Amino acid sequence: MTDSSKPDTGIGHDKFTSQRLRRRHRAERRFRLYGVMAVALSLCCLTALFSSVFSKAYTIFGQTEIALDIQFDQAVIDPSGKRQRKALIGADYGALIKAGLGASFPQVSGRRDKRALRQLVSSGAVYELQELVLQDPNLVDRHKRVWLAAADDVDMYRKGLIAGGAQGNGRISAKQAAWLDDLARRGQLERHFNWRFFTSGDSREPEQAGILGAAVGSLLTLLICLALAFPLGVMSAVYLEEFAPRNRWTDLIEVNINNLAAVPSIVFGLLGLSVLLGTLALPRSAPLVGGIVLALMTLPTVIIAARAALQAVPPSIREAALGVGASTQQVVWHHVLPLAMPGILTGTIIGMARALGETAPLLMIGMVAFIVDIPTGPTDPATVLPVQIFLWADAPERAFAERAAAAIIVLLAFLITMNLGAVLLRRRFEQRW
After folding, report:
1. Which of 2, 61, 139, 253 has its CA 20 to 30 A from that of 174?
2. What span, in angstroms and rounded, lies between the C-alpha atoms of 93 and 142?
3. Residue 127's closest CA among 184, 61, 210, 192?
4. Can you give the pTM of this predicted structure?
């Protein structure tokens, strides 16, 4: 009796296995390709973002200035000759600018033409002359060539951002364009580095507006936020992770901490408005109030990051310390906490970076106010970089657009510095076991 079935040579099985392997390899290659495409798309979006910001912001580093021969006439500045500060501040420096323009263009006559000529110089130039005289009262009754900021339309026209002259849109007339060309030929119109943007506060005039006030306000606000959120967050995390008993109350606290981390930031702004300003009567639009509000918002993030860092410490370290007779407190402070500190610092700095970019809670407590002076303390009126960007982006003058873009670059520099600090601190304090 013969068996009609053929012996299994394994050829079909090997063929099926090789097909499955090929499908797996193709799927793996597709998956890698999808990952590369995702990274490339992210880089393209990031490049487009930075290109858009830098293309609008790079022009801020140059500011058009006009040189005028100013005669600091004592009859205008200090008729009494006493050189008193009050008299120097109240002098009519606008008359000196008009006289300097008249000396450069003696052929200009007529009230309308003189007004158009005066519009070439920034209206804030009177304060520049005032500051010069206050710094050196000996300038009174002397002659000096002074570089003054040009008006914002003049600056944008010279940068090629707006049209002017005979083909213009009326913002720079043909006469004004001719006067500017004449000043340039005589060496009285140049573009200098824009130090005002980095050394002055906000202003109604775009050419006089600077970022220093907002930068100092952001720094003071973040320092107060760090001083409150870091110790409270770390101590709370240590207690919950190392000392607190496991019961329904600690579970309830943990759930509430996780929920607070997801609460919209504007809710914390409402809390600051009702409690800090309404009940405690703290100063409005002050870094003190802003720092407290941001600390409340950052505290859950710090607690969660600190607890995760404490949980990452191996239990063997605790057991070894307890085995040689250390108390629970000594184990935490001498062994566990130092080993968890890199993760705690990283989480804290990332939380602070998030707080730096918040705008909604600070708007609720009045940090949207127009602040000209540089804050000198936590209770002085101030604004912060995100709010300053919001104000400049909403301003009708086109010259504020490049300042808003430049402020974004400053804000990004703050964020990059903070994240770089987190990486360096982690490497500095990281210990391997």
Report:
1. 61
2. 14
3. 210
4. 0.85
